[in-house]
Each structure stands twice: as C-alpha cells, then as structure tokens.
Amino acid sequence: PVLVVDFGAQYAQLIARRVREANVYSEIVPHTASVADLLAKDPAAIILSGGPSSVYATGAPFVDPALFEAGVPVLGICYGFQAMAAALGGTVAQTGQREYGGTAVEVTSAGTVLSGSPASQTVWMSHGDAVHAAPEGFEVLATSSGSPVAAFEDRTRRLFGVQWHPEVKHSPLGQKALENFLYEGAGLTPDWNAGNVVAEQVEKIRAQVGSARVICGLSGGVDSSVAAALVQKAVGSQLTCVFVDHGLLRSGEAEQVEKDFVAATGVELKVVDARERFLRALAGHTDPETKRKIIGREFIRVFEDAARDIVEHSDDEVKFLVQGTLYPDVVESGGGEGAANIKSHHNVGGLPDDLQFELVEPLRTLFKDEVRAVGLELGVPEGIVWRQPFPGPGLGIRIIGEVTAERLDILRAADVIAREELTRAGLDRDIWQCPVVLLADVRSVGVQGDGRTYGHPVVLRPVSSEDAMTADWTRLPYDVLAVISTRITNEVPEVNRVVLDVTSKPPGTIEWE
Ligand code: XMP
Q: What integer best gives the mean pLDDT of the chain?
C-alpha cells in the first residue's frame, strides 16, 4: 500500500481518499509508528500528511531521518514537508508570517511532482513556519511570497515535498501533483478499483469463514447491504440475513430490501415483522431520548431472538456476524483491530454472552464512496447504493410527539412526495438528506376545498453536508419547494401546512429529535 502518515490534522483521510481516487490503494498510519513499523507494511510509497504542530513546538511529531534512507519514495505535505526538510538538514524558519487559503505560487522548475503545471498557479496553504533552505541534494521547484521554498524534490532519492495541500479541491492542480508523485515519482500503476476490491474481499471472506454459517443484520442502508452482498458472493448459501421490519421505515424501503435486494443478490433473507411490537413499546412516549432508547432496545431484542433462532435451527455452527464497519470508523477508533471490534460490536448493540460471534467486516478498508462503487459492481440496486443517510430509529424520531400507526402513515405519505419531487428535479446527489418531520401535536387552521381544516404541519429539512457533523440548509429552488408543498397539502388530507427549516447545524441538529 501507499502509507499516509497521519500527523494529527483532518487531512490524512482526505489524502488517503485522493490516492485511491488515483486508483492506488492507500492506508492511514499514526505518526507514532516507527520506521520499522512502516517498513513492515512493505509500503510502495509514503506520504507525510499535514498537521497542526510547528516543527519547533515541544513534543512536535518527529520524523526519523532513517525513513528517508529506506529507498521508499516519500512525499511530504505541509507539516510533513517541513518535518522532512528539518530531518534532512534544511532550514525551517518561524517567520510568524502565516499563509492561509488560496495562495499564488511561482513554479521555477516543474520537476516530477509539478510536471504539467503552469508557471504560476493557485494552491491552498495553511501554515505558519516556512522552509527557507532546502536540504542538500534537493532542487527547489516553487516559491510563494511567504515560502521561499514551497516545493522541492530529490529525484535520485525519490523524496518530494510541497508546502501546500494538494489533497483539497481548492488546489485545482492538486490531484495532478499527487498523481505525478504516485505514477512518476514512485512508479506505481493505477490498478486499484472496485473490481479488484471485490475479488480480494471475496478471497479474504472465504479464508476467514471456511464452511461455517454466517448471519448479517440488514438495515436497508448502503453499508449493511453492500457488506451482505459481498459475503453472499463469497460464501453464498452459508449466509442468512435478518431484516427487522420495525415499521419505522419510509414508503417502499422494506419492499426494496425484501424484493429488489434479494432478487439482485440472491441472499437468503429472514424478515421479522416487528411492527406491532415497536408500536406497543412506543405507545404513550413523547420524549426524544426515551423514544430512541425504546427503539434501540427493541431492535436488539428482536435481532437477538432471530439470531438465536437461526443458531438453534442450523445444522452447522453459526460462527460469524457480518458488520458494515467502514474505514473512517476504524481510523477514528485507533486503527487497531481490537479497538475497532469493540466499537463495531456496539453497532448491533452488543449481543448477549450466549451468542458469541466473530465479526466479518469486509468494508473496513473502504470509504463510503468506495462502498458505493463496490455495491454497483456487485449489482446491488441503485436505489440502495445511492440511498441518503437515514437514522436507525427511522421515522420514530421524525414524528414529534407520540408515534402511532396513523401518524406513521401520514408522514410516509408526505415523505414519499418530497423524495419523488427531489429525485425528479435531479437534486438527490446535491443534498445530503432531506428529513420530512411531522409536528404531530401541533395543529393549525387552514382552508382546503370549501372548508376550514385544522391539520398538522410537516417540516422539510433539506441539508447539505460533508460528514453530518456540520450542515447548512440547502437552498432548494422555489419551484421545487412549491411543487412539494402543493402536492403534500393536496394528497395528504391530514396535512394543511408545509414549512421549511432554514437552520444550519449547529445550532440545529439534522434530525429534530
Ligand atoms: P443529527 O440529527 O445528530 O444527525 O444532526 C446526524 C446524522 O446522523 C443521522 N442519525 C442517525 N443515524 N442512528 C443512525 O444510524 C441514529 O440514531 C441517528 N440519529 C441521527 C442523521 O440522519 C444524520 O445523517
């Protein structure tokens, strides 16, 4: 792999993704890894990421000069560039002059990394210190007003560095620079793609599982669906999927799993109809946290029962449980096998002690967009592959007030109209998600047809986001909003008002509960 050494900024994941977008497999490693640790992974190349420190700060992450003696091509980015310069005897100065944001650089010699670059270009900078003198043997490739040495390389030793962030889209030629490093600098071939991932994971799953039986909880979301499809491709009829229909899904979603997904992948699916059970458990409850806890608890119980049932009625031992854990979870929980297992176990809420499974996590090296590509490769229906995020507790937390069967029907009817119109307008991939929320305990006066009505409002909550940690409300076109509003109030008799949520996150969360 190409190893991306994480110096503690948020950029390492982005770098790893960009490398994979260049069709080269990459992995993130913490900066605390020793040179021996890094070399043990047999890296094809190493990228040192940016980070928040100054190389002068006490305790600043340090780069062992031995790394540059190993014959592995290295690219230093921002902090990684400065750390490389410092480790090899260059001069890094604390100038106090920050460069932040779009910055002009002059390319004095294109070299390898900047090959194909115009003489001046705009790049994204974010740094305080600057490299004033390149280490011996390095050629200076670019300068900016705040960085006398803004890029350098030593072609013989295959060591390269840039002061700016090529991984962010604000550096328009950044991807080109990364690809120059990977293809020309490190001599790598761009041959990593979804097809290879499938082939490789199928091999791994077969090796792990052998002839044992496997179960998987399907939620209808992208991750569990693609994970199940991969395991199905690997071990076929050894897999049984469990789909808990808690009645809190949106219109058409249960059918999509029960029919389309099964037809496309051939998985054996056990559907547990738990709709009544969830409604009973939720009856009388209005507090958001209580509702969430009830849904979580019931979900675990139903899943446990189903799992136990499969275990008891199976001729072979059921040893494995499939989880749709993704790479960001693995990285964020420390990257270690053990740490990630503890976390992912919580994804199914922690199964009881008498049900001990080993985890199968075929997506744990992948980012979300890669999971989608793998899903398409496996023939998972597009409606599932491109599904926007949907919370586990489902519509239960989009009915403000008590959850009842009637209210679920009202919300489903309104929600499906909003989704249809957003899809028709071609906006699905522009928005992150658009919850539709029923204010079930609020009523307002309206006039519909010839009569006065006293109905409920629904809220449209379209948001744009990168990761759901922060979000902005999406400026949907007025004509699309108008069609959604007209259709909902015409077609859903209990609703006489449609309102738009224009709150960013923070302060508002995406969901209302
Ligand atoms: P909030 O409302 O916290 O939501 O801004 C952030 C993102 O997380 C989703 N969400 C959940 N997803 N289980 C999930 O799997 C949950 O309990 C849950 N609650 C919120 C929400 O839809 C948004 O994408």
A: 92
Regarding whether 149 and 249 lie in a shared domain, the answer is: no
Atom in ligand 1 nearest the alpha carbon of residue 292: 17
Q: What is the mean pLDDT of residues 11-28?
A: 94
Same domain (yes/no): 364, 223: yes
Does the pLDDT value for residue 315 go beyond 60? yes
147, 168, 185: which is the final residue of a domain? 185
Distance CA 464, CA 424 (A): 18
Backbone torsions φ then ψ of 234, nearest 5 degrees: -80, -45
Reduced to 3 states, what is the DSSP secondary structure of residue 221? Answer: coil
> How are beta strands 2-6 and 26-30 bridged, if at all?
parallel
Pure H helices in 313-336: 327-332
Q: List pocket residues of ligand 1, CB cut-off 6 Å.
A: 389, 391-393, 433, 468, 505, 509-511
Distance 436 CA to ligand 1 centre (A): 14
Residue 344 pLDDT grade (very low, low, confident, very high; cuts 50, 70, 90): very low
Ligand 1 atom closest to the CA of 435, numbered from 1: 22
pLDDT at 346 over 50: no
Number of folded domains in the chain? 3
For 43, the token pair is: 């890296």
pTM of the model: 0.84
Q: Are residues 20 and 127 in the same domain?
A: yes
- Cα distances from 105 to residues 112, 114, 170, in angstroms, run 16, 11, 14
Q: How, if at all, do strands 463-464 and 358-360 pair?
A: unpaired
Q: What integer pLDDT is reported at residue 349 of this predicted model?
A: 44
CATH number of 98's domain: 3.40.50.880
* Claim to verify: residue 156 and residue 67 sit in the same structural domain: yes
Of 510, 512, 513, which is best to mutate to test ligand 1, by the most ligand atoms within 8 angstroms of its C-beta? Answer: 510
How much is the average pLDDT of 387-408? Answer: 96
- 105 and 254 housed in the same domain: no
Domain that holds residue 488: 398-500
pLDDT at residue 339 is higher than 80: no
Q: Which of 511, 512, 513 is the best mutation target for the ligand 1 pocket, counting ligand atoms within 8 Å of the beta carbon and taking the most?
A: 511
In this structure, the answer to whether residues 13 and 47 fall within a common structural domain is yes
- Nearest residue (CA) to ligand 1, atom 7: 468
pLDDT at 337: 38
For the CA of 221, the nearest atom of ligand 1: 15
Q: What is the SS3 assignment for 431? A: coil
Distance 420 CA to ligand 1 centre (A): 22
For residue 513, the CA-to-ligand 1 centroid distance in Å is 9
Domain boundary among 385, 406, 436: 385
